[in-house]
């Protein structure tokens, strides 16, 4: 399984947690049991999801402050929110190259989101990078 496929599985799990408004270990374990990922990948995905859940309040603040003035976080679809949480986690906390994270997020948005999702995701993430001076790294 390559990194893009792992990220996609991570997205599916984060999205299911967003939809069900339930971030229990049991829900995470059920998702992973039904997955065809290797045990090593399952462990990595679980660890990442737990970190994203833990950092969710900070990640959501970051999203909110990088929305255009006419937007608020409640308007963001669960698909877009899930993608943004993963990308911001990767950029701000895992310190992955922002260009890779943004590109991967845009691709997920094209695959799972609405027609405007990819440009919305790109805009928010570009603002996050600029706002945090991450483009210089």
List the helices and strands and how they pair.
Elements: H1 3-20, H2 25-33, H3 39-65, H4 78-93, H5 98-112, H6 117-131
Kindly state the mean pLDDT as a whole number? Answer: 92
Q: Quote the beta fraction.
A: under 5%
Strand pairing plus helix content: what structural class? mainly alpha
- Provide the gyration radius in Å: 14 Å
Annotation, overall tally of beta strands? 0
Largest pleated sheet: none
Question: Would you identify the CATH architecture?
Answer: Orthogonal Bundle
Tell me the number of structural domains. Answer: 1
- Please give the oligomerization state of what you see: single chain
- The CATH superfamily is NusB-like
**How many angstroms separate the termini?**
28 Å
Q: Estimate percent helicity.
A: over 70%
Shape: globular
| Low-confidence region ranges | none
As for the CATH topology, it is: N-utilizing Substance Protein B Homolog, Chain A
H/E element sequence: HHHHHH
Give an overview of the whole structure.
By secondary structure, the chain is mainly α. It has a single domain (3-131), classed as N-utilizing Substance Protein B Homolog, Chain A (Orthogonal Bundle). It is 73% helix and 0% strand. The protein has six helices and no strands. It has helices spanning 3-20, 25-33, 39-65, 78-93, 98-112, 117-131. The longest helix has 27 residues, at 39-65. The protein is globular. It starts with a helix and ends in a 6-residue tail after the last helix.
